[in-house]
Amino acid sequence: MQEGKVVAYASRQLKSHERNYPTHDLELAAIVFALKIWRHYLYGEKCRVYIDHKSLKYLMSQKDLNLRQRRWLELLKDYELVIDYHPGKANVVADALSRKLLFALRAMNTRLKVSDDGSILAELIARPMFLQEISEAQKNDQDLQAKRKKCEDDTGSDFKIGSDGCLMFKNQICVPKNDELIQKILHEAHKCWLAVHPGSMKMYNDLKKMYWWSGMKRDISEFVSKCLVCQQVKAEHQVPSGLLQPIMVPEWKWDRITMDFISGLPLTAGKKNAIWLKENQIYGVDLVKETEEKVKVIRDCLKAASDRQKSYADLKRKEIEYQVGDKVFLKVSPWKKVLRFGKKGKLSPRFIGPFEVIERVGPVAYRLSLPSTLQKMHEYSTYLCYVDIVRILHI
Questions:
Q1: Minimal CA–CA distance to 330: which of 384, 386, 389, 388?
Q2: What pTM was computed for the model?
Q3: Cis ω on the peptide bond leading into residue 246 (within 30° of 0)?
Q4: How many C-beta atoms surround the C-beta of residue 281 within 10 A?
């Protein structure tokens, strides 16, 4: 402390060999620990140590010291240190947390547990939020009512009645087949401000500690897969969609044209700095003008090479087709104007939408119903939206 204000706090657990120290050495070890971690504060300054072990006050004048105490005494001599005795009963500020009343802990729904080293650990027990709603819904579920009646007669059953009157299955609350209630539980476990949208497996492992219902894992997996925020923000862990579309050799001149723009050139007299380049792809008749046999051999070799490249590429891709009316997301990572929270990078969504497919214009090309701000975009990638708008809850 300095001028009545705390500068820093420190604490740590005892090491295995330190547990065998006598009380005198343990109290001295605490002083050595404080001097080492706060050396930059204490070295060269006059400081005062308050301790509740009175014998340490006469440490400097003691004659019989063990090797450990002598070694630590050499460290203490580097500091302008004064050790004062302060009784433990009078040290109410430092011991306030360790002397916290037990009834205050019980009010916080805690459970006290004694560890192996003798220390007392307070465990905070989480209570389900929809306990009253679940209890009322169980009364309207015939299957759960039958199991309740059975567990009253059979004491060895996995089902039992809890202290709050709810039917339990292996210490888990039985949730009736009520879609609205199940959706509330899933919504709270996945979309509340403390949940941070966990994956299906983590969400299942968390929920199964408190709840149980038939088809629980399936419902959780379906709910997470249809989360709008997860589909827009989370990274894709799938192979690219759409098989490779090789360019076919055209049969006639000007049957297939490629275009490109070359920009950033010096300004011309007409104030132009770009070139629009158009090229006609090579076609079959002009490959070789010698004999038809050589033309056929070259054409077959080109087709074999193209098919081989396509087969290799398709091994790491998947075929997918959209129907008119499907909802798809639009990948916007190359488009820097789509921001989230006013920042770029990790907080920007990877996808926006969903948008409706209105027309199929090619084997892997579709026309979407885009807003006016996105009408100028002509090159993008999409993936299917699994969001069920009806199932979005507003609690």
A1: 384
A2: 0.50
A3: no
A4: 14
